From TrEMBL:
Segments crossing the lipid bilayer: 21-46, 52-77, 107-134, 140-163
Organism: [Clostridium] hylemonae DSM 15053
Annotated protein name in UniProt: Small multi-drug export protein
Keyword match Oxidoreductase: no
Keywords: Membrane, Transmembrane, Transmembrane helix
One protein family per Pfam: Sm_multidrug_ex
Cross-referenced PANTHER family: TRANSPORT PROTEIN-RELATED
Amino acid sequence: MTETLVQNIIDVLGGSMGKEAIVFIISMIPILELRGALLVAGPLLGVPVATAIPLCIIGNIIPVPFILWLITPIFNWMKGTRKLKPMVDKLEAKAMSKSDKIEKYEFWGLVLFVGIPLPGTGAWTGALIASLLGVKFKKAFPAIILGILMATVIMWFISYVLLGGVNLLG
């Protein structure tokens, strides 16, 4: 499913945008985020690592403050509607099912949750869980940024060294 989503994005945007813009946009999309963007940037699109990394980091960070500040009021409003409440309840339940380490270790739990690239983790879900747990912005935002930087190092190695066949300085 993720591969199809990525290919559809590349197909739709490829004719009208450059490779760098595609990488930037992918890094902002939930589920794909920086992890998917770096995989696309290196092996698929051939975007140089020095260009891809800042694009992916910035693109992945941009949605985070909005999620931290606005998701709770938006969810509360949506819960007031009969049609949207089941969807919000499902999203909250799914996010909270992954919240145990964040709740227990807060800052460092959030860093690791965002930073270790496993399915269902990342900046979007980390910000959602932090918001639902009531973690203050001053604590959540830096933790998520550190997690994004950690994920960057891991995904750079996978994308550019293991899959891309690029030397460590390339």
